[in-house]
Amino acid sequence: xxxxxxxxxxxxxxxxxxxxxxxxxxxxxxxxxxxxxxxxxxxxxxxxxxxxxxxxxxxxxxxxxxxxxxxxxxxxxxxxxxxxxxxxxxxxxxxxxxxxxxxxxxxxxxxxxxxxxxxxxxxxxxxxxxxxxxxxxxxxxxxxxxxxxxxxxxxxxxxxxxxxxxxxxxxxxxxxxxxxxxxxxxxxxxxxxxxxxxxxxxxxxxxxxxxxxxxxxxxxxxxxxxxxxxxxxxxxxxxxxxxxxxxxxxxxxxxxxxxxxxxxxxxxxxxxxxxxxxxxxxxxxxxxxxxxxxxxxxxxxxxxxxxxxxxxxxxxxxxxxxxxxxxxxxxxxxxxxxxxxxxxxxxxxxxxxxxxxxxxxxxxxxxxxxxxxxxxxxxxxxxxxxxxxxxxxxxxxxxxxxxxxxxxxxxxxxxxxxxxxxxxxxxxxxxxxxxxxxxxxxxxxxxxxxxxxxxxxxxxxxxxxxxxxxxxxxxxxxxxxxxxxxxxxxxxxxxxxxxxxxxxxxxxxxxxxxxxxxxxxxxxxxxxxxxxxxxxxxxxxxxxxxxxxxxxxxxxxxxxxxxxxxxxxxxxxxxxxxxxxxxxxxxxxxxxxxxxxxxxxxxxxxxxxxxxxxxxxxxxxxxxxxxxxxxxxxxxxxxxxxxxxxxxxxxxxxxxxxxxxxxxxxxxxxxxxxxxxxxxxxxxxxxxxxxxxxxxxxxxxxxxxxxxxxxxxxxxxxxxxxxxxxxxxxxxxxxxxxxxxxxxxx
Length: 746
What we know:
By secondary structure, the protein is an alpha+beta fold. The protein is built from 26 helices and 30 strands. The strands form seven sheets. The protein has a ten-stranded mixed sheet with strand order 3-4-6-5-7-8-11-12-15-16, with helices on both faces. Strands 17, 18, 19, 23, 26, 29 and 30 form a seven-stranded antiparallel sheet that branches. Helix 6 packs across helix 7, helix 8 packs antiparallel against helix 11 (about 240-250) and helix 12 crosses helix 13. The longest helix has about 30 residues, at about 165-195. It is globular and about 80 Å long.
């Protein structure tokens, strides 16, 4: 959700050098005094200059400070040190463009025209339309609000400001000043480049219980005929909805962005996930009857907005005007958030705080240092997970309700679609997700259930687009770097354009999109090709199975004699922060010191030929456990011929849920039980000849996940300071074939 500018990327790349540096706010700063805040930022800008000069850092790191202090020659020099834009870009970041324009006073029009010319020609109307939505006084107001919230949080928690936070604040101040002064000339320039006029309508949509929801409607002001409507129901009051709303309007749709209950100026109680089904029906009912709508309604959006669309198809609340649904990276409530692999994660509080209250609280959500510190404090002190919100000083009703339902019980099941909902669903659906998407398991949960319970129409009308995209890239634009990985040029698509062409097909009767290769359109990473298949099962032509052995080798044949390997780990032991968070590192040269000392590594021999993955990698382990419950994870890696460590996925299991999240059953002590590790992400890539597959097995012992001490009670309430040893004996023989399975397409 973070807005990553080119400047931010530079800062991230240099994090190891200056991350520990911090800046102190003036003790008596009145953050409600605009003039005082401006003077404080000037002072911080001087501190940034002094800091960079003392450390001999690149001039580019002081860009924001240069802009705030009107040192334009230095700002222009800083811009030259930033990474160059890729050739033929399909999009431009409004923040990046505004930052660049602010460095050239008096040349705003000329520089804007130059920047637009760097955009791939057929994407220029989209980019210009988006910038028309961004270069508004409302955007400056959002930046002002973010400055206030950042300073408020620093004062509330008596925090010093990190270098990154200071440069963000300076950037916000510089850009808001620039927008306040120059937005009319920017709009005039954009209109000259692309004359389409847009209008924004603010509406109050009535719900059946008398509540009114706030909505923004974006339209082409020159449209003469009624057009289909595309709706997004969202808990995120960004203030920048026009950036995408204008693009939908440019392509012939009324785009309706609706705030969830209790958010921004929407009335009613704000409690995520619980009333979206009935609200979506009422929204569609109102929209479909408006004079500007032709009666056909579709839905779109990603993450929570994807979840909400799966509420709109519930049989009891499905409106007849709903003709097409486009859920991207859809959250599976209780499936992959706030429970993931049947375990809670501290991120659930971070997100709960983000969507609490009426307005957006991006600065708190983005404060990596704050959340990292609180996670590590809970981890090091063995604080029970239920107390995390109190430890963070953020008591939260969403967090407390969710954590009170550790099983996949009636609460979660009552909100998620059921078998009848899927069985009666026959309208066209386009699901979008990515190999690096945090919510891939949620998106695939809906997709698989629809195909499992739906009829023939479901099988035919549900399309899936999947590629090497992260959570953000799957929703709108796949940039050259996705989840810290460089992706192939052929994969650098604009998913939103694919979505629009799909809507043109199903709502406007235009030709079937050429990008659709089959029911599933996927990118075969490592081949540079988009391909199609009717299902992952059809794509899988064979499977490679490798068996775990006591020598820690993965063998292609079941051992003749029983292989036994005992794993022993004190779950109260603490990992240093580098080891605890190592799984988030991007692909890199293999270094065994990155691995936790509390894991076991298994490895295959080098592959004699290339293989193409056709589905998720999985594992089945037969384990004898000394405690009634435990959490385990398996990381899968490709180790290339040149020793590059390439992440292939992670699968995790809480032993009590080995029969399913709705069927908790503790492990019988010292009895052999099968554990299925089958929730790694789908990653359709080529593994090259000479590569090996490595498996990293161990207890889930990390600050970023709820800790299971293995007592067998309510995990979120458990804790201990005494040593607590988890002893798992892995057994491999003909009756207990502990193995990994690699589905392949050839």
